[in-house]
């Protein structure tokens, strides 16, 4: 039988969330891989596209960055 459309959407969402979890675990390689799969499954997922763009450009803030008092 043909998979339900919600199943495909669920797979995209799972990949996006998994990418975010890997990013929080400081595993940018796995995060990027999962975000790219989500984007491949749904090429119009602009939020993931922007995340990947920011990652590539180094514009995403590190999650557990050690902040100094220099500010």
Summarize the structure in words.
This protein is mainly α and about 70 residues long. Helices cover about 65% and strands about 0% of the residues. The protein has helices at about 5-25, 30-40, 45-55. The longest helix is centred in the first third of the chain and has 20 residues, at about 5-25.
Write the SSE topology.
Blueprint: H1 5-24, H2 28-41, H3 46-57
Helix pairs in contact: 1-2, 2-3
Question: What is the residue-mean pLDDT, rounded to a whole number?
Answer: 84
Q: Report the end-to-end length measured between terminal Cα atoms.
A: 59 Å
Shape: globular
Query: What is the strand content?
Result: under 5%
What's the number of extended β-strand segments?
A: 0
* Relative helix content: 55-70%
Write a concise synopsis of the structure shown.
This protein is mostly helical and 71 residues long. The protein is 65% helix and 0% strand.
Characteristic terms for this protein:
mainly alpha; 71 residues
């Amino acid at each position: 039988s043909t998979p339900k459309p919600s199943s495909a959407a669920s797979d995209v969402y799972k990949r996006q969330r998994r990418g975010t979890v890997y990013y929080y675990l400081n595993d940018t390689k796995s995060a990027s891989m999962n975000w790219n799969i989500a984007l491949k499954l749904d090429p119009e997922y602009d939020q993931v596209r922007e995340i990947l763009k920011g990652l590539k450009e180094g514009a995403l803030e590190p999650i557990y960055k050690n902040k100094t008092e220099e500010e």
